[in-house]
Specification:
Layout: H1 2-12, H2 15-41, H3 45-60, H4 63-81, H5 91-116, H6 119-127, H7 132-162, H8 174-185, H9 188-237
Helix pairs in contact: 1-8, 1-9, 2-3, 2-5, 2-7, 3-5, 4-5, 5-7, 6-7, 7-9, 8-9
């Protein structure tokens, strides 16, 4: 039993790195994802094409391969053809690759959220004299954010688990801690059970919280719909 407790406690030492990378990656993914989503919805075929190509490439290649390219491939290429280059800390390319990877998925989530907003909202905003950019910034995007919040939360949970591939590029996150313990003690099973429990410690509460927020959101939408229908019926009766 002591080996399992040790495996769990050692794996938990990697939680700060896992959470740090995940939070920054989702933040980067949300900003870059919004830009890509706007490019995808643009009528400019060039911008739309670039955005689609980016999404296809990122979603069509394993995140582990992307991490290896950023951590080792890019520095080697720069050193060979340009100048000496080395990452100050391997957590930097880890955050970059996770953020850019998340952006590809977040862009589709944001795009679907924008498309879910009633088209009449844009028409109403334009009729009030707003430019398309202003209408997107003040009317459409705030409503889309509310729609996609549960999906963003799910992306965060998914990213926490996907950061496990960063152990292969030397980032001391949860899996890396468990792997080093396994190599030191020659007890793989307790070490990796500890890794699994450390991930569950993060993902289970977050999943429950997201489910609660999603139910509350649906409840609020239902209440708003009922109030709207009530108002329309009272107006018709009058």
């Amino acid at each position: 039993m002591d080996a399992y407790i040790t495996g769990f406690l050692v794996s938990c030492k990697g939680i700060p790195a896992t959470v740090f990378v995940s939070v920054l990656s989702v933040a980067i993914g949300s900003v870059v994802g919004l830009l890509i989503a706007l490019m995808r919805t643009s009528k400019n075929k060039f911008l739309s094409g670039i955005a689609k190509l980016y999404v296809d490439i990122v979603r069509g290649t394993p995140m582990l391969v992307q991490a290896l390219i950023f951590a080792y491939g890019i520095p080697e290429f720069i050193q060979t053809h340009l100048f000496y280059f080395k990452w100050a800390n391997l957590i930097i390319p880890a955050i970059i690759v996770c953020g850019l990877n998340s952006a590809a998925y977040m862009s589709e989530v944001i795009r679907s959220g924008i498309q879910a907003v009633d088209k009449g909202q844009m028409e109403a905003a334009r009729s009030l004299g707003m430019s398309k950019t202003m209408a997107m910034r003040l009317i459409i995007i705030p409503q889309a954010v509310k729609i996609i919040l549960p999906a963003v939360g799910n992306e965060f949970v998914t990213l926490i688990k996907e950061t496990s591939v960063l152990s292969y590029v030397g980032v001391h996150e949860i899996l890396r801690k468990g792997t080093l313990l396994s190599a030191a003690t020659f007890e793989a099973f307790p070490a990796y059970i500890g890794v699994a429990l450390a991930y569950l410690l993060l993902t289970l509460p977050l999943s429950k919280l997201i489910a609660v927020l999603e139910r509350r959101g649906k409840g609020s939408e239902k209440k708003i719909g009922e109030e709207k229908n009530k108002t329309m019926l009272e107006g018709g009766a009058a």
